[in-house]
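Course assignment 3, question 2. Fill in each field.
Student: A.L.
Task: Predict the tertiary structure for the chain below.
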Amino acid sequence: MPCSPPTIPLPAQTMPDLRFPPFPESRSALGVRGGPLVALAALLAGAVALSAIAVFGDGWPALWIPAGLALVALATYALLWSALVRPVRRFAAAMARMAAEDRVDLVPRARVVELDRVALALYRFRRIRPGRRGTRSRHRVPLAVTLGLVAALVLGWAIPAAVATVGGAVPQTEAVVRDAGASAAVQADELHGALRGGLAAVERAAALPTGAAVTDPATTASQVLAVEPLFRSVTVVDASGQPVVTAGASPSAAIEVPPGGARVVQANSAGSEPLVRASSPMWDGASALVAEFDPRALNALIRGSGGRTRVVDGQRATVLDSRGYTAFAPLDDPALRALAAAAVGDTPAVDTPDDGRVAAAQRVTAPGTATDLGWVLVEDRNLAAAAFAGDGNRRAALVAIVAAAGLACAALAWTAVTTVVPARRLARHVERLAAGETLPPLAPQRLDEIGTAVEATNRLAATRTVRPVHGLRVART
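Answer field:
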């Protein structure tokens, strides 16, 4: 009987565990140091900028501001390094050794709450009892508390520095009064020019060959609306005042054509917004062309210029306001009402009330003209704010203060997102593993020190080896 050939055993083949990639080391050039280094760089750059402004400017900021910022920069980085960067880096190195040697006792307890939670959970996972040094009472600080202390230190410098920069400007009353009057005159002239330009556009469209019939009113209205961006609607009305055709939005109220030729009128003295219309008789002698100004476009022509600018009508009711307003709200300030009444000529009326303000009033149009609405432009400024607005040195210092503090706080927020939150997530994950739950591997957020600790935890969890209770080992701490 033939014998079968001897069976030759095949060499043993070991399949790699494909659940985990090769253990990654930190690939981040800065790691957890990134945020603290950015904060340090921002604060030191702010100190250099403030020093340059003080040396080449007009004596502000005082030297205590950049010197204080330099000390804050060094103190914040020292605090971040000792309470956050160094503990996290040591923890990551210990976790990497733990994964390489499969020894949980290589991970020491820490003074950082989140890292200490991870170490204790790892001991419970492998049934290892902390040594006597590890059980002693120690003050442990959460990572978020460290970031909060640093942010408080930065803001504790920035807020007083900003207040001293803004509030320390010395007002030059005469210069502020002169600037306020000039600004009021310029803004009143711009508003008058807008009203005059709108009326001129209506007159040009209405003044075609005299005596001819108006055969295409729709085209005329559309052309005027396209030419003048300050208008929101243009309407052709017949001899009885009834609209024939309208281009743009429908008229806000019934149209009344004023007698006496082309002019601009304010059609209401109450309501949700002022109705300002430019009208002109058309060439047929019966129809009229009426354009309604957009009050928002008119309001955009005035600006605060370091204060608040309002336009009031003949009843001293507000029709325009640089800070937003309720239409026809009365001008209640007695000093401003008296100043508006005093603005009767081409020269602005200026006053300095006793409460640290300077105010100027300028009539928008001369009385009796076609664009005369009885409007008066009133500009109200705070002397201290105006003094700061006119001091370029202090404005530059304030920018440097805000930029340095803002970038430093943004770096702290970034550190919270990239270090504190992942560390807390890792602590919760390891505690659940130690409680016996079967969990999927935790994905590292970044390949930095915390990412190394996460991957080391995943490697440990893959073994799922639990020592007998009677074989407790003592962790070296």
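Instructor remarks: The first strand starts at residue 128 and ends at 130. Residues 4-24, 465-472 have pLDDT under 50 and may be disordered.
Grade: pending
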